[in-house]
Amino acid sequence: MNALDDIDKIRQLDKSNMKNMLDEFSLQCKDAWNINIPLLSKKNFDCICFCGMGGSAVGGDIIKQVAQNNPTIIYVNRGYTLPSFVNEKSLVIPVSYSGNTEETISCYNDAKNKKASIWSISCGGILEELSQKDGISHVKVQKGFPPRCALGYLFFPVLNLFTKLGIIKEFEIENTFSVIKKFIDVYRVENKTANMAKEFAGKIWNKNPIIYSGPFLFPAAIRWKTQFAENSKNVSFINEFSELNHNEIMSWNFPEFLVANTKFFFLRDENDHPRIKQRMDLTEKILSDKNLEIINISSYGKHPVEKILSLIILGDWLSFYLAILNNIDPTEIKEITYLKTELSK
Q: Domain 18-170 is classified in which CATH homologous superfamily?
């Protein structure tokens, strides 16, 4: 039996039942969309700055691409301090699933000092306490998930807010939920045929996965890398067209043992810039001439949210299956826990 079809084996490794969280992601997204979010009295901002780390920041990466045709400046901030352009005309959105991420709390305080408008998200913690004390609009989401498994709760309330602010045009959200469920059904453990997530996990086991994309799908590439790290405990690398054509393309020669054990994923979208498409094709030829394998994956869906999430869902399942092949628990993150414990001292 294929190890990725062996449900008993998966249950033994998957001690915190991440499989169930992946199975129910579409329900999480619906629940998150239906949260009664607080609205803002002000609707026009010079810029909107997301603050978050890890899984809590990916929602900002997605929304930035979805809203790219809107003139409002959208910035995703990963760190302790806000950029200098944030001021009283800005909206700051601190996102921390636990509510205790120290970089995000620092940015919250920085936003207060800059007199920016604030709209926060967490499942509790310090961020909720500060928001309540300061009279700040706060969205409290359901607790009980590893932060990387709570993307629906950290993204869809923001999508709802941006729709209400007019930054993103209203669209058929039920169709988006249908697309999400469709892909979950394709990639879940019980599907033993035509399951790309299982197939790709087998291809990259004991290999060095590289994920390349254009700007629009780069949030999906970021998500793949972080999921390979946390779920699979596996090294991976990402880069973006066309920046990689100005430097990284020269690197795929040495060291020979590393190059020989590398697999490339090209994440493609039909609306990528024509020159990006041409660069991807030429890069594929260069790498193929070196006998390197390139796996092309196209986004799916009509709306930008659907397209990005279609690839994020694939990456989530792929990283889960790679964890099983690596014979480790996909939820365990002992090194991160150690770091947080030491820093808290």
A: Glucose-6-phosphate isomerase like protein; domain 1 (3.40.50.10490)
